[in-house]
Amino acid sequence: MAKKLIWLWAMASALAMVANAADEASTKSEWVLNLSKKNYTLKHALAYETTIDNEDAIVVLLSAPAVSSEELKEARKSEKGGSDPLFQRPFLRLVFKKTGELKHWSASAGGTTMGRQSSKATGELKAQGDRVTGQAAMAIDPETMIPSSFDVRFDTKLIKAGEDLPAAGPNTAKASNGPVSTQVSVLTSDPRSSAMRRIELERMVIVKPTENRPNNTVANTSHG
């Protein structure tokens, strides 16, 4: 009986460790890229299907700025044409085969750009439905011309081939039968000084109710 309880406890502990690891990967919001002895924080993850070297592939991009729909389209176009795209810096681009093996990686940060690299890096990816999970790592080698390292785990949505990121558009609010208050932020520059000052303007936009048009919207625009 005691042995059975110990076995059950061990199994429960192992399952808990697996669940914690999965939760850590799915809630991870920052990764670190070390390039030329400098650390760069990457806050956005994007995984998408593409064509590289005439083969289907999956790219996992970790970057500081978010990637737009237009940037993704241009990246796929470059990759299909045999070129590696350059995203806004800093970024780490991991290219996986559809079977899950890490094919190569590239990165760019500060004034340093590294093209396709494959030696000494390890990684794997698993696609399930519309999500991918995996990891990639490379230990720093001080003897290389450009020292670099990373150790990342990811769990993110997969943008399938033929799918695009949603295009960015203005925020809208459903019209109501009364006035709608819209907060507008305007960033201005004082010509007499180099300092920037933010002026918060609040205005009232009166929406005229229209029968049988409940989906009428008012744009909420932010400048700055």
Count of the domains: 2
Give the fraction of residues assigned to helices: 10-25%
Order of helices and strands: HEEEEHEEEEEEEEEE
Inertia-based shape: globular
Number of helices: 2
Low-confidence stretches: 14-27, 169-224
Question: Which structural class matches the secondary elements?
Answer: alpha+beta
Largest sheet: 10 strands, mixed
Rg estimate, integer Å: 24 Å
Number of strands: 14
* Distance between the amino and carboxyl termini: 68 Å
Report the portion of residues in β strands.
over 45%
Mean pLDDT: 74
Give keywords:
224 residues; alpha+beta; 2 domains; ten-stranded mixed beta sheet; two-stranded antiparallel sheet; 14 strands; disordered C terminus
Structural commentary:
- It is a single chain.
- The chain has 224 residues and is an alpha+beta fold.
- The chain folds into 2 domains: 18-159, no CATH class; 171-220, no CATH class.
- The chain has 2 helices and 14 strands.
- The protein has helices spanning 2-27, 69-80, and strands at residues 31-35, 38-42, 44-52, 55-63, 91-97, 102-109, 112-117, 122-128, 131-138, 148-159, 171-174, 180-189, 196-205, 217-220.
- Strands 1, 2, 3, 4, 5, 6, 7, 8, 9 and 10 form a 10-stranded mixed β-sheet that branches. It has a two-stranded antiparallel ribbon with strand order 11-14.
- A hairpin with a 4-residue loop joins strand 5 (91-97) and strand 6.
- The longest helix is centred in the N-terminal third of the chain and has 26 residues, at 2-27.
- The model is unreliable at 14-27 and 169-224 (pLDDT under 50).
